[in-house]
Amino acid sequence: MGDMILLQALTAGWALIYADRTCLYPLLAVIAAQLDLSAVQLGTLTSVYFLLYVLMQIPAGMLGDTYGLRTVLVTMYGLAAVGLLGLGVLGTSYGWLLFFAALHGLGAGAYYPTAYGTLLQVVSPERRGVSSAVIGAGMAVGLLLGLAVSGPLYEMLGSYRAPFIILSIPTFVMAGILWRALPNVTGGTQPAWQDYKKVLMDKDLLLINVGTLLALYGFWVLITWGPYFLQVERNFSLGQAGFYTGLTAISAVPAGLLWGRLSDRYGRKRLALLVLPAGALALFVLSQLTEPWAIVAGLIVFGAFSNSAFGPIMVAWTGDIVAERYAGMMGAAVGVFNSIIMLAAIAAPTISGLIRDMTGSLVAALVVGSLAMATGVVFLLFIADSRQGAKV
Questions:
Q1: CA angle 106, 111, 113 (to 5 degrees)
Q2: How far apart are the first and last CA of the chain?
Q3: CB count, 10 Å around CB of 391?
């Protein structure tokens, strides 16, 4: 199987996972009005997804290294589709929404470690950065799709549950496509707990994880609360709020491909220390804008330096270190990486909702997000650049 087929399948699968995830965010204001929910309750609804998502990261990577990454990926992808369908069919109360959001998160949580674990073992080391960026482009496309379609689907069909039902159909289909397209890669050995402990305690990996966690905190503040912020505080319509928040994906695709390729050539650290501070500054400026045209421009600029653009550098950097130090543990190591960095997605929605309830505005929450991103730079300063691409 060629690398191109592998990349196409993994990119499409990641795009759909992101569309499933982000279609909720433009509907938060609608759900709040219909179910009489506070901002903290809305934040918890998104946080419970990521709580189960994070809890699945390390087990998925470990199981994939032992029994086959494709087997775990496809099984849990199907479970994510079941959770999404449950949100649409039975999500008529806050309790059921919480339950099926958690189930959906549990299934989706296996995708990152198994997909990137497969990729980082199959592609050549000198192509890790750009290949990771290709999959990251799927993330950006899915983010835009989910944010852009859920509002219009709600307005067309009159139910906040309709987008979940509609998106569950291609999610079930994608599980079958991934089964046919991917090799069933394993770690080659069955590592002992002491081996996993080494991955968890590796200084460089830990610094990458914490730095990326802080970078993603700001991203998830904007993505989860951006549509609500634009509707309630900047007077955008429901459809506009979701679509314009999704514009972060437009610039993220070419930027991510560029950053990934440059990191292959010039080193991960050099590019990370350029991209992350720029993202922090862009988010702060965005929080202060009030004119519609300026907000749209700010979202596009932020996208060029945020998760979809920044993430490929960090996962490739992780892959470089793991390939050199921990052979046979790529799935587990990527699971550790994503389980730590996605703690940001658990914390950001609820903390931001609390800030919104306390201050009456999300501006302060966005500022806190920008400060978190800036702090992440400090951790990256203490990491030696990976051997791959470190032509300094």
A1: 105
A2: 34
A3: 10
Contact present, 340 and 209 (Cβ < 8 Å): yes
Q: Which tens digit of pLDDT belongs to each residue from 46-83?
A: 889 988 988 887 788 778 877 888 999 999 999 999 99
The average pLDDT across 335-354 equals 84
Both tokens of residue 108?
């989706």
User: Under 8 Å CB-to-CB from 75, ≥6 apart: which residues?
Assistant: 110
Residue where the block lists tokens 């433009």: 26
Residues 90-139: tens digit of each pLDDT: 999 999 999 999 999 999 999 988 888 788 777 777 776 677 777 877 88
- The token duo for 183 is 């090799």
Which residue is it, tokens 């610094």? 207
Q: Which two tokens stand for residue 21?
A: 């995830």
**Are the C-beta atoms of 182 and 56 separated by less than 8 Å?**
no
- Reported residue count of the chain is 392
Q: DSSP readout, 10-75?
A: HHHHHHHHHHHHHTTGGGHHHHHHHHT--HHHHHHHHHHHHHHHHHHHHHHHHHHHHH-HHHHHHH
Would you say the C-alpha torsion 144, 47, 118, 327 has a positive or negative sign? positive
- With beta carbons less than 8 A apart as the criterion, state whether 100 and 88 touch: no
Tens-digit pLDDT profile for residues 279-306: 999 999 999 999 999 999 999 999 999 8
List the structure tokens of 314.
């960090």
Helix boundaries (H) for 68-127: 69-90, 94-108, 111-122
Task: Map tokens 């079930």 to a residue.
Answer: 172
Beta strands in the chain, from DSSP E residues, in sequence order: none
As a whole number of angstroms, the distance between CA 179 and CA 94 comes to: 34
